[in-house]
Amino acid sequence: MNKILIVDASASDCRVMSSLLSKAGYDPIGVDSIEAGKVEAAKLPPGAVIVTAMRLPDGTARELIDWLKAEGYKFPVIAIVENLNGMDVAEVMRGGGAVDIIQRPAIDKQLVKTVGEYSKAEHIVLTLDNQLLPRKSEEWQMIEEKIKAIATTNANAIIFGECGSGKEQVAHQIYLNSSREQKPITVVDAGGAALVGRHNPENERSEIYNRIEGYFQKSAGGTIIIKNVHLLTFEKQSVLLYILETEHPDVRVICTAEPELLKMVTEKTFRPNLFFILRQSDIAVPSLKETTEDIPVIADFFLKRYAAQTGKPRKHLDASAIKALKLYPWPGNVRELKDIVLFAAFHAKGDTISEADIVFNLSDTSMTYDLSLRNPRRERDQILEAYQRGGNWKQAAKLLNITDKTLISLRKKYGIDSNGEIQS
């Protein structure tokens, strides 16, 4: 919903313009002076438009335009003229001034159309809070049960899952469902440039020790969530292990980690003794491609949030869009689903989103879930998987990062027909 700033001393005309713009789906703000206009202009979000009278009690439209340019604001300004006086029009539009004009006697006919030519819809950004998204898959029903079971204990936990799969939400739910919910929670990103905290230079212990210990002191009786624990440096691992083993702080530690943490433990790049202290319990969050039945439910949740935030009618996915979403491999999981669904909602012409409105990020071949043909023993299975996910052979070739001609040769080699069946 675009903001439209109206700067006009005529209270009656201001009311008329506000009413016209509101009915057209805009969010108008009316002021009666240049100074008040400057205050409101500084608050405008991207995509806004300014409509101003040529003359106001404390200045002219040209003065407002010059102030906007001096402050670096590039909102399009539409000037209201009393009549088509050539000198007035030239003055207000010269040198990149007003982008257009409307005649005051014709406000009812010209205003909405003219504003529509210059307003730019702002792409809505939705942020995910700590709640669990609605899902219906059996895997997620089991995860919700495990969250409740772990929450009733004081056990540390590691939440495993791919990037964007919702690990942080699961970690927060354990905290929110526990008796420690009444005590402080601290969230630390292990991959941050520094563990930000209080450092006492007079203390003989290392700076890293002081910083990490500061988190435990701050969270006494409560919970620390360490995001991406697999990114902790070996030195920070050692400090964390020392604090947990020797000081036994009354703090529950919940970590999130990508599956590579298990390999790191095997290779001794992550300290096994620290790992087992942190993993007194665990939850494995499935990837989105493993729970495709959740995709329509999650997508509909995002569309409801989008409609509520924009004030626009709620949009729906048709069968072709749902099929396309289920076939995509989702390297970015729920986070990527949110972005793709909102992009489709933003650009879809009507209230129904079809496959034609869905734009997938297939250009980055590094994000194809290892569907590129690197292992000869798995080539046939990879070809069949790519065909299933892409829906056709052209998309399959993109997912496999090979040419259409190469794919045809490989299909002949493995006896795969045009319908993705193995020929006997």
Labels describing this entry:
single chain, 424 residues, alpha/beta, Rossmann fold, 3 domains, 5-stranded parallel β-sheet, 17 helices, 14 strands, 44% helix, 13% strand, extended
Q: How are the elements arranged and paired?
A:
Elements: E1 3-7, H1 11-23, E2 27-31, H2 34-41, E3 49-53, E4 55-56, E5 59-60, H3 61-71, E6 77-81, H4 86-93, E7 100-103, H5 107-118, H6 138-151, E8 157-160, H7 167-176, E9 185-189, H8 207-218, E10 223-227, H9 234-247, E11 252-257, H10 260-266, H11 272-278, E12 281-284, H12 295-310, E13 316-317, H13 319-327, H14 333-347, E14 352-353, H15 379-390, H16 393-400, H17 404-414
Parallel strand pairs: 1-2, 1-3, 3-6, 6-7, 8-11, 8-12, 9-10, 10-11, 13-14
Antiparallel strand pairs: 4-5
- CATH homologous superfamily identity of the largest domain: P-loop containing nucleotide triphosphate hydrolases
Strand content: 5-15%
Task: Tally the structural domains.
Answer: 3
Strand order of the largest sheet: 2-1-3-6-7
Largest sheet: 5 strands, parallel
What is the quaternary state of this protein? single chain
At a glance:
With 424 residues, the protein is of the alpha/beta class. Helix content is 44%, strand content 13%. The radius of gyration is 29 Å and the shape is extended.
What does the model show?
- This protein has three domains: 3-118, Rossmann fold (3-Layer(aba) Sandwich), CATH 3.40.50; 153-286, P-loop containing nucleotide triphosphate hydrolases (Rossmann fold); 365-414, no CATH class.
- It is 44% helix and 13% strand.
- It has helices spanning 11-23, 34-41, 61-71, 86-93, 107-118, 138-151, 167-176, 207-218, 234-247, 260-266, 272-278, 295-310, 319-327, 333-347, 379-390, 393-400, 404-414, and strands at 3-7, 27-31, 49-53, 55-56, 59-60, 77-81, 100-103, 157-160, 185-189, 223-227, 252-257, 281-284, 316-317, 352-353.
- The strands form four sheets. The protein has a five-stranded parallel sheet with strand order 2-1-3-6-7, with helices on both faces.
- The radius of gyration is 29 Å and the shape is extended.
- Mean pLDDT is 86; it is low at 363-374.
